[in-house]
Amino acid sequence: MAWTNNVLRVNLTDGTCKSEPLNTEWAKKYLGSRGLATKYYVEECDPKVDPLSADNKLIFATGPLTGTAAPTSGRWTVVTKGPLTGAIACSNSGGFFGAELKNAGWDMVIFEGKSAGPVYLDIKNDQAELKDASAMWGKSVWDTEDMLREACGDNDIRCASIGQAGESQVLFAGVINDKDRAAGRSGVGAVMGSKNLKAVSCRGTTGTQVGDPMAFMQATGACNQILADNPVTGEGLPTYGTQVLMNVINETGALPTHNSNDVQFDGASKIGGEAMAEPRESDGKANLVSNAACFGCPISCQRRSQMDPNHFSVAGQPKYHGNEGGLEYEAAWALGAATGVQDLEALTYCNYVCNEYGMDPISLGSTVAAAMELYKIGAITDADTGGLALEFGSAEALCKICDQTGLGEGFGKEIGQGSRRMTEKYGHPELSMTVKSQEFPAYDPRGIQGMGLTYATSNRGACHLRSYTVASEILGIPEKTDPLTSDGKAGLVMAFQDATAAFDAAGICIFTSFALTLDDVAPMINADLDGEWSSETLVEIGERIWNLERKFNMEAGFTAADDTLPARLLKDAAKTGPAKGKVSELGKMLPEYYELRGWTPEGVPSNETLSRLEL
Amino acid sequence: MKITLKLYAALGKHLPDHAVRGEVEIDVDSGDTLERVLVAHDVPLEHCHLVLVNGHYVAPSERAGKVLEDGDALAVWPPVAGG
What we know:
The complex is a heterodimer.
Chain A lengths: L5 E6 L4 E6 L2 H7 L2 H12 L13 E5 L13 E6 L6 E6 L3 H7 L4 E5 L6 E6 L2 E6 L8 H12 L5 E4 L2 H4 L7 E3 L3 E3 L4 H7 L2 E7 L9 H17 L1 H10 L4 H7 L16 H4 L1 H5 L10 E5 L9 E4 L18 E2 L3 H9 L6 H14 L3 H16 L5 H4 L9 H13 L4 H4 L2 H8 L8 E2 L2 E2 L9 H9 L12 H4 L15 H18 L11 H11 L6 H22 L10 H5 L14 H12 L9 H6 L3
Parallel strand pairs in A: 1-6, 7-12
Antiparallel strand pairs in A: 1-2, 3-4, 3-6, 4-5, 7-8, 9-10, 9-12, 10-11, 13-14, 14-15, 16-17
Chain B lengths: L1 E6 L15 E5 L6 H7 L9 E4 L2 E2 L2 H4 L9 E5 L6
Parallel strand pairs in B: 1-5
Antiparallel strand pairs in B: 1-2, 3-4, 3-5
């Protein structure tokens, strides 16, 4: 079976690495990755724990399909309590590190305590050892990976590390693997930094054994065929990547612009997927070089980019002139439309910086947008910003403040606190576009009603990847619903939340759900693991995970009052586009959602619900 | 009358050469339907997955009868997704 049954427990305080057996009873109920790691986390940590204290724990987890021949099986997860939100944090990444960890023989790594000095964890199959990382402290993710390869004497290792942002505990610092794949959200990189854990290097050659190899190959073959035949996963995503959404969402009037003052951006066509593929005016070359894939992925939605070497942001800096991880939609939106910047090269540079220093581009861009509004209304001035004119639309200011944030310099220190804390400091908390202190992504709830409920109820703070109702409301997957009505959205959001949790727990990419249903996934799990697994089982596991996360958050101090949106979205109507005149109808959707969930009117999971889910 | 035609992703190749960033203003006859305009520009209807008029979705069953009006923006995509 594709559980290795080995959990690596690393005590950073005393420097020990110990193997222990996987709790298989929990694995049956929570499947893996996001689900199983969250179960371990809540069993071992006080919900009130300070996220940046030694008492917090940090879990790197794989799923039962991670590292197997299943399509998109490169996914892995970081679970902890997030310093940005104070809520459960579960940040999911692709690339190759997760599969390497699994193939080294580990289902999960649990970090506890705090090292006295900088260390990295060196894993070579069943051997794991903490080593001195003093020479790497202060280095970027990119430099750290190069140094680890040299230190290990092995170019085939895979790495997950933090950059300067994680070290200085920027509250939206991420953990970056394979140089440009990110467990980006909620500040999981800051937790790693707080523990003086710089990196994990991993080499795994033991392989991953599935329960029934023949049945597994049949099931994965069927899924691969579905993905290849589906026009979205077989052609749309490989060719255009996620960035094709920029013009779609702008046209539908749901592109949060200028810190959500507007819902359409007149520069959208200059920063989207089509623009990336066009020759630049400056040098005649396209920003987009190619697509690329994570481990085991037949979709290949990644973008590889090459900047104009004479662009002001990178002129004279050869390290940015190569082929690097390019813009994805969420990053391009946050760094672009949210800030009003329509210079594609500048956005590409800032995205590089997020990978290099280890930051979440969604929270970074959104926080910069909030700062630009503070600057516009005079709540901050040049005296606060060190002379930096933080004006909407300024590519120069954007590049500078991204640098400063990653390096913990100047006004970047304020940006690094996230928009909720920053706007509160300067007296305008209403300008923070956050839920549970986490910046929301690239869909305005006034124009896509389901996303308002998605953000408000997301257990890790505002997020699109907890229930991507955009698929239904805009793209018609699996069936088209009207984005401008809130009718029926409570059930839609709940269904997406539970299914997404199941996909996450399995260890495959949520993008497969554009083509695969849980009926397609279940045969892979069945052949992979012992026991009987059906789509109904997986939905129940998804619901259990969702309620477990919710229960933890309630015990951490969250209430129904936190299931809300920025006032701007609830009171200020959209000015243009199809949603003109509309606000988010969250107040209508939320009670229905609570009822469907089996929660009290106060948003608390009822005893009956908890009992039914064996919580 | 004039409308704005916007063709994105793989459909962009069906735009006239003078189109800029995926869109172009075109003349259409009064009473022209959405489908007639697309056919006139050699856009394969079977590839038209997401069709919006002024940002509002037009279902496949409504496209043949959807009459365009002066100033409309017709935007079309093949199957795409993201997130």
